[in-house]
Design goal:
The protein has 275 residues and is α/β, with parallel strands linked by helices. It has twelve helices and eight strands. An eight-stranded mixed β-sheet has the order 1-2-4-3-5-6-7-8, sandwiched between helices. Helix 4 runs antiparallel to helix 5, helix 4 packs antiparallel against helix 8 and helix 5 crosses helix 7. The longest helix is centred in the middle third of the chain and has 17 residues. The protein starts with a strand and ends with a helix. The mean pLDDT is 94.
């Protein structure tokens, strides 16, 4: 059974889906795509969790505040969503890229809000100069021409691995459709607010106390398996895993592998002795 809600928050009216029953798990997607990027993973996780899928500001049918906002604002909005839904238990957070940034901030700002943290394809450093230049170029092209062929290809080349682009036309089509449907102004505001203005999260990561699983694709050039392992070593209860032939959108590219990793992580935490 699925419920749908539109919840007013400081970052806009956010569209939220509730799927399944069980302990609550909150999903926050990557920049550039909407909550449909979870649709391959959701059926693989609903047996043990009630999934709360949040569509971030400026994406899908969610609005935005009409001004710049931050990942800290997004974390506060997620907390408000849980209050609105009367979710009183700490949630298992699953964040893809942008969603991982929001999750790290939520986990360190309100430790009692999050039981476990799974971050997927989430670099903890700000954008490199090359990444910033490429993002500004795509943003400028998007401002002039909207989701043109060059914008679609440039974005898809970053988000999906070469293997996915060659062998999974449905994944490519989803990314293209998300970009085509997006409101230009809202998308530009999101990219500037939560990507170009993203701060270094390294010190935040050092303060995460929850059991944490870090997943990245082995074709994610912005956050390599070695970088993920280095981040996990900073955590008292951290682990890292790399998924073959995937880049940023690992839940879309390799849902079976992601579900297996998350399920094993949750099972280990469920059966761990209380401390």
């Amino acid at each position: 059974m699925e419920q749908q809600h539109d919840i007013d928050t400081p970052v806009g009216r956010l569209h939220v889906r509730l799927i399944g029953d069980g302990h609550p798990a909150l999903l926050w997607h990557s920049l550039f795509v909407d909550d449909r990027s979870w649709d391959r993973l959701i059926p693989l996780l609903t047996g043990s969790r009630q999934l709360i899928s949040v569509t971030g500001p400026g994406h899908g049918s969610s609005t935005d505040p009409g001004r710049p906002y931050s990942n800290e604002n997004c974390a506060a909005a997620a907390r408000l969503v849980l209050r609105h839904l009367d979710i009183r238990q700490p949630v298992d957070w699953i964040g893809n890229a942008w969603g991982g940034h929001v999750g790290i901030i939520a986990a360190t700002t309100w430790p009692d809000l999050i039981r476990t943290l799974t971050v997927i394809g989430t670099p903890v450093a700000p954008l490199t100069p090359l990444e910033r230049a490429r993002t500004y170029l795509l943003l400028g092209l998007h401002r002039i021409a909207g989701p043109s062929r060059m914008v679609l290809q440039g974005t898809t080349d970053v988000l999906l691995s070469e293997q996915t682009r060659a062998n999974d036309p449905e994944a490519v089509q989803l990314v293209h459709d998300c970009l085509r449907r997006a409101d230009r102004r809202l998308m530009r505001n999101a990219v500037i607010s939560v990507s170009l203005r993203r701060t270094d999260l390294l010190e935040r990561v050092r303060r995460v106390t929850q059991p944490t699983l870090i997943i990245t694709g082995d074709r994610h050039h912005g956050y390599t398996p070695d970088q993920a392992q280095a981040t996990a070593r900073l955590l008292p209860r951290g682990d890292a895993a790399a998924v073959p032939d995937a880049a940023y959108l690992v839940p879309l590219e390799a849902p079976q592998a992601v579900a297996a990793l998350i399920s094993a992580f949750w099972t280990a935490d469920d059966t761990a002795p209380a401390t």
